[in-house]
Amino acid sequence: MSDIKFFTGEQVPVEMHKVRIVQKLNLLSIDERLRAIEEAHYNTFLLKSREVFLDMLTDSGVNAMSDRQLAAMMFADDAYAGSETFYRLEKKVQFFFDKKYFLPAHQGRACENILAESFVKPGTHIPMNYHFTTTKTHINRQGGIVDEIYIDEGVDPKAIADFKGNIDIKKLENLIKEVGANKIPFVRMEMGTNLIGGQPVSLENIIATANVCKKNKIMFVIDASLLSDNLYFIKKREAKYKDWSIHEINLEISKQADIIYFSARKLSNARGGGIVTSNPDLYEKMRELVPLFEGFLTYGGISVREMEAMCVGLDETLDFEVINQGPQFIEAMANELTKFNIPIVSPSGGLGCHLNAMEFVDHIKQEEYPSGALVAAIYLISGVRGMERGTMSEVRNEDGSEHLSAMELVRLALPRRVFTLSQVKYACDRLAWLYKNRHMIGGLRFVKEPQVMRFFLGELEPIGSWPEELVKKFKEDFGDSL
Fold it and tell me: Which run of H or of E encompasses 247?
């Protein structure tokens, strides 16, 4: 059903759902958008929702729920302790992952906090395919060191590889020899890699990584927040598993890990999260931190209504016609941008379409935050809000110098079942115009820089008057058009 062919030969993903409820959008004029981005201090996180036309900031907690999820939310049991809703979710999670123990938490970063508190000690090393911002911060706060052991193709936007999120097994083995297995509390694998283009991990690589961990008696932890996309890519790109069901693939993945954690804001299209394991000792070690940081063990900071939605969402994640929608729409957007020669991360991954800012605005130095400048320019000329994923998202070196990111990306997330193809085409059209006028975009500098996770709340200003010049050029070319 997902491989629908058009008589005309056109390749277009067909929505496998119909729209029953709509939400009105608002597109400000370009003068109003200039005022809005100025008031947001050129940080798209600080824009108000009412100022945004198409919100491609993230797919976290903003995916469209199904009718079955919304209906299930009315069935919730809101008891503080011993809620029947929790036990329904626990049973569903056990079926989904085939692991005995489930600890609820309000979202993925809460799980990371519990993992870091439980296992990370000063001077320990945590190898991973690529860090995520919150993951690295939680590990660093406990005195741990993040070691990124991605394959070389992972940080090359132009490299064509089916699984650019893979761990480099040789690098992992060398790191274990160098620092010692006793200095590594766990190896973390993110499925897929958020900061380098939502790139997936192969099941072959998951098994190989697990084998290295078992050989060296090191715990293997999987971040399954973006699991649904990864399941799709394994079935489509890994020939050995093309005839396996989604659940069979998922159980094979789960079997390799000692601990799996996830954000339900991504996995299951609800709002919550959790940690699963079959090891009673690991469970007991983490268990006492849930009431301390999250809430009682039978709600863990999650609304019981969202728990009911998670139950249905996990079921829907095992439906290929549900999980294929995100990657197929992202691929369609990537193909459209490629027609205009706009530099993107190839092949398209999950989560969203990723622009290669290093090439898009190659005249802007990394110290002047090319990804941040580009994402601000995109909002200015279109009302589309994306996210900076580059040097601005890194942490400064101890001497105060910039830690230059391996990649400078702008992430244009495509929340599941939210946007139409005409809206995607609008975004691509505005990006085509911006790419033609890319040399007008200048850099940014911080005027207020938080010490922790500066990309969330930092305030910046443009270097020069490039925003006003861009507005002037837009008006010349588009006239009164929004």
Answer: helix 246-256
Q: Indicate if the alpha-carbon torsion angle 196, 401, 133, 36 is positive or negative.
A: negative
- What sign results for the dihedral spanned by CA atoms 34, 39, 43, 44? negative
Tell me the residue type at 442.
Answer: G
What is the maximal distance between C-alpha atoms in the chain? Answer: 67
Q: In the chain, count of helices (H) and strands (E)? A: 19, 14
Q: How far apart are CA 212 and CA 256, in angstroms?
A: 11
Say which of 136, 235, 389, 454 is annotated catalytic: 389
User: 33, 265, 266, 438: which one is catalytic?
Assistant: 266
Q: Count CB-CB contacts under 10 A for residue 281.
A: 8
Residue recorded with tokens 């200048």: 442
Is 223 among the catalytic positions? yes
Average pLDDT, 10 consecutive residues per value, the chain (482 residues): 76 86 94 98 98 95 93 95 97 98 96 97 97 92 96 93 97 98 98 91 98 98 97 97 97 98 95 97 97 95 96 97 93 95 95 96 98 98 97 92 94 94 96 98 97 93 98 95 88
Among residues 55, 59, 168, 223, the one annotated as catalytic is: 223
Indicate the pTM of the whole model.
0.93
Q: Catalytic annotation on 266? A: yes
Residue 77 annotated to the active site: no
Has 132 been annotated as catalytic?
A: yes
Catalytic one among 45, 98, 133, 362? Answer: 133
Cα separation, 266 vs 278, in Å, equals: 23
Q: Which residues pair with 276 in a beta bridge?
A: 102, 260
396 catalytic? Reply is no
Catalytic residue among 130, 232, 455, 474: 455
